[in-house]
Amino acid sequence: MDKVKLNGMMFYGYHGLYPEENKLGQRFTVDLELMLDLSEAGRRDQMGDSIDYGQAYEVAQSVVEGKAYNLVETVAETLAEEMFKSFSVLQAIKVTVDKPGPPIPGYYQSVAIEIERERPHELS
Predict the structure, then answer these.
(1) Which of 28, 35, 64, 98 would bridge with 92, disulfide CB 3.0–4.6 Å?
(2) pLDDT tens string for the chain (124 positions)?
């Protein structure tokens, strides 16, 4: 399947289980793979046959910088749901939400959640 990819989008959010995370917030990095048929876009050269990158960025920004969630899993799931609502041509999505330096013991670069979803039948 064809893909529109948005890589390394950075947002500041307040997601986490600990009060400090909800108060101080932190940076989150998001990658999206938006899967759809791009053959018409390639032939017709019309934006309506694809997904507007700027609009996809704005949807992601509104989720990550919006309501605070306890779990990064919820951020990823909400991102997928909002993308399907926003883009009728979207058939499937892969969402990666990376949380650099979460407040847990150990040495590592980050933790991340990656989900893959297909368009729900009720949104078809």
Answers:
(1) 35
(2) 999 999 999 999 999 998 888 899 999 999 999 999 999 999 999 999 999 999 999 999 999 999 999 999 999 999 999 999 999 999 999 999 999 978 888 888 899 999 999 998 877 6
| CA–CA separation, 79 and 117 (whole Å) | 11
Distance of alpha carbon 96 from alpha carbon 75, whole angstroms: 10
> Which domains, from first to last, does the chain contain?
2-123 (3.30.1130.10)
Respond yes or no: is residue 99 known to be catalytic.
yes
Number of Cβ atoms within 10 Å of the Cβ of 95: 23
Among the listed residues 5, 23, 67, 99, the single catalytic one is: 99
What DSSP letter does each residue of 70-97 carry, written as one string? S-HHHHHHHHHHHHHHH-TT--EEEEEE
